[in-house]
Amino acid sequence: MIGGGQLARMAHEAGIPLGVRFRLLADTPQDSAAQVVSDTVLGDYRDLDTLRRFAAGCDVVTFDHEHVPTEHLRALQAEGIAVRPGPDALVNAQDKGVMRAKLDSIGAPCPRHRLVADPADVTAFANEPGSDGGGYPVVLKTVRGGYDGKGVWVVDNEQEAAAPFLAGVPVLAEEKVDFLRELAANVVRSPSGQAVAYPVVESLQENGVCAEVTAPAPDLDPELAAEAQALALRIAGELDITGHLAVELFQTRDGRILVNELAMRPHNSGHWSMDGAVTSQFENHLRAVLDLPLGDPRPRAKWTVMVNVLGGDYPDMYHAFLHCMARDPGLRIHMYGKDVKPGRKVGHVNVFGDDLDDVRERARHAAAYLRGTITE
Ligand code: ADP
């Protein structure tokens, strides 16, 4: 797996019971996954020779992030290395302009959008008629390099629209969707074409960062849930994706779903599955890229709530374990071994059960206590 973040750490963890020999390409020995994977190669994923050295002897190469240059992946593939998902699929998760064009071509519902050249063009886009009624605010996104809300701007006028163009990266304009909530439809597809769909989840973002996920999404019309799952399976098939695909969705107030973006790797909206599903997204991602039969994605409990643990003022969260574990023996804690910095994702907790309010309160309490925002 290329990339040493927490997704690689948890994928490695899922591979242990299967006896999967897991090699990692990481930037530094301190990376979340590098701390636990014994077969770690250190190097720069932007360097083709490093990638070649890393991939030699691997049956399959997969990813914890989407930032490996597409041309390097094509070169590896041409040299006979199995790259899953492949570069033609992955480019849709790397470049939001490419993704929107591809989704349009298969008729997947998206917010009104187009590439824009400069701030005046943003105003022209704002004034184009659309189902959203047009006008500012407009959402601007750099097509490459964004994550966790970085690279996304909500602008109210042409003056504010200048900032995204400074980076010199193409800019995509989108209508600002007046959504009811955000959902994610997560599916896994293998090269043989087998696919499984997890229940559609609700994801709550704070400042562009995923804060909380509820599985399944409460009060979601079963027809809309089935539509979202079918859409994600169709995207996985049409784009020939192998591995885990997260389709981030907006549920509009008038009962439609629109695709926000795609991630072709395990995803924060699937962390609940580590404790809440028969087979976790991490195990199913590994099974898929190895072309093994996929595991059951169904939930093990009526409700599972995942809350991210963000860094707070205390560098050491271990002292909080005593209270959290004593208060709630059903709590599942997953820490990533990362240095605590304010706002950084350093872990998550999962709680599952029959009563949503209870499950949610316990998960929120534990995450807040670990962070240090509450002390009792
Ligand atoms: P990232 O690559 O950082 O994950 P996203 O495209 O997912 O960027 O955007 C981050 C967040 O910004 C979304 O989760 C959503 O809350 C908000 N957002 C993105 N696009 C739109 C849009 N067109 N309308 C309204 N909100 C949006």
Poorly predicted regions are: none
Element-by-element helix/strand order = HEEHHHHEHEEEEEEEHEEHHEHEEH
Radius of gyration (CA) equals 21 Å
Count of runs of 4 or more consecutive helical residues: 11
> What ligands are attached or bound here?
adenosine-5'-diphosphate
**What's the shape?**
globular
CATH superfamily of the largest domain: ATP-grasp fold, B domain
Helix content: 25-40%
How many domains? 3
CATH class identity of the largest domain: Alpha Beta
Q: pLDDT average, as an integer? A: 95
N/C terminus separation: 40 Å
CATH architecture annotation name of the largest domain: 2-Layer Sandwich
Number of strands: 15
Structural class from helices and strands?
alpha+beta
**What is the fold named in CATH at topology level of the largest domain?**
D-amino Acid Aminotransferase, Chain A, domain 1
Task: Describe, in plain words, how this protein is organized in 3D.
With 376 residues, the protein is α+β, with helices and mostly antiparallel strands. It has three domains: 6-83, Rossmann fold (3-Layer(aba) Sandwich), CATH 3.40.50; 112-175, Dna Ligase, domain 1; 179-371, D-amino Acid Aminotransferase, Chain A, domain 1 (2-Layer Sandwich). Helix content is 28%, strand content 24%. The protein has eleven helices and 15 strands. It has helices spanning 6-15, 48-55, 70-78, 87-94, 96-105, 119-127, 222-238, 273-276, 281-289, 321-327, 356-371, and strands at residues 24-26, 40-42, 113-116, 138-142, 152-155, 171-175, 179-189, 195-197, 201-206, 209-215, 243-252, 257-263, 303-310, 332-335, 345-353. The strands form three sheets. Strands 7, 8, 9, 10, 11, 12, 13, 14 and 15 form a nine-stranded antiparallel β-sheet that branches. Helix 4 (87-94) crosses helix 5 (96-105). The model has no long low-confidence stretch (mean pLDDT 95). It binds adenosine-5'-diphosphate (ADP). Adenosine-5'-diphosphate is lined by residues 111, 139, 141, 146-152, 174, 176-177, 182, 205, 208, 248, 260-261.
